Amino acid sequence: MDLRIPSSTAPLTGAGVARRAAAPQGTGGEVGFSNALQGALQSVSDAQNRSSQLQTEVQKENPSVSLEETMVAIQKAQIGFQATLHVRNRMVQAYTDIMNMQV
Length: 103
What we know:
By secondary structure, the chain is mainly alpha-helical. It is 66% helix and 0% strand.
């Protein structure tokens, strides 16, 4: 799971900032924060689903699924979930800080 946002676009300067800010999300192949977050959440969900499937196959004693592979998938899913919780907590804290600012 990769939570990093790809930096394939050039830095924004001058009038380009206003044009990009006014453009709707998802146009021109740009990666916005919401798209990156959605992709990361989907990746975590996929990892959890895969680990659940592997656990089921191990319980059914499927010879093509190893216990090691299953344990690694479980650990990846747990790490991804923990990272997601940390991101959520930071976002909630940032929202709370912004809401408590004096206007």
